[in-house]
Amino acid sequence: MRSGSAEHEHAMVRAAELYYNDGLLQSDVADKLRVSRWKVGRLLEEARQSGLVEIKIHHPHSRRRDLEQRLTSRFDLPEAVVVESQPTNAATMDLVGQAAADYLLEMRPGPDIIGVSWGHTLAAIAECLPEGAFNRPTIVQLNGGASSLRDTVDAGSIIRMIAGKSRDPRTALLPASAIVQDRELAHRLRADRQVAGTLHLAGRADVAVYSIGVLSPQSVLVTTDCITADELVELSGAGAIGDILGHFIDRFGRVVDFELDQRTIGLGLEALARVPRSIAVAVGEEKSEMTRAVLYAGLCTVLVTESNIAQQILDDVPEGHE
């Protein structure tokens, strides 16, 4: 970690946050950041000398503790991680991806079974993980995939990236589409030994990381023909506002189309709610309503998001619910 590098600067920010904001001992900070206690002392000293730390932490990576506390209080949410929204969606995605990666790295004990979905948000998180991120993890796909994806945002690419940055990893892919054509096919697929085994393993995950999807013609589930244009219209008419792992829900977090849901291949919402740490990640203000629905339904124990989404959620909820 070369002095003056972006990695060094990020380490200064995290050390300062953990020590000054969270009140951890330097030995605890060292454990979380996987460095020596001496190194933590040097990072804190450099942070003070550089002006990074005064009364508060001056850096885009610094979290919005005020919004985090309001979210956890209002929605009875165990944990929230909120970063400052940036001028562009790409810049915000980078910060949210790093924040989610930091959360995973700082879990103690480290996760043995890590469940992941796919898409641009999960790819951003995987890219932010350092080499040697996890020790002997099993990385499992939470929901079926889609064909004709651009870039490397498919489940296989994301899982391989995380595995490549881990020591002695195991992987479990889900060889099925996110949504199939009919219920009979879905039933047969779930009975397949490999599919059933992967779904069973996903239900045993220590942590599940997924992104929040919105109902839109630009949704990857639409552009890859997992659902048709007619089904999109029907879902909208039924009150759907987006999906979690391919399960379409309304603003109260309820599944809206049971026939379609029976054709969905992936971890069910009830099973997701039983995962010890389920991390929902949201970037883009258009996801505010869906993020609020996820919080209402208790579908995550940790929310990682940006300040614009957090503020909009809090503004739209009556003060009496806080």
TrEMBL record:
Residues 63-314 form the Sugar-binding domain. InterPro entries: NagB/RpiA_transferase-like, SorC_transcr_regulators, Sugar-bd_dom_put, WH-like_DNA-bd_sf. The keyword Metal-binding does not apply. Keywords: DNA-binding, Transcription, Transcription regulation. Pfam families: Sugar-bind (PF04198). One of its GO terms (molecular function) is carbohydrate binding. Belongs to the SorC transcriptional regulatory family. This is Sugar-binding domain-containing protein.
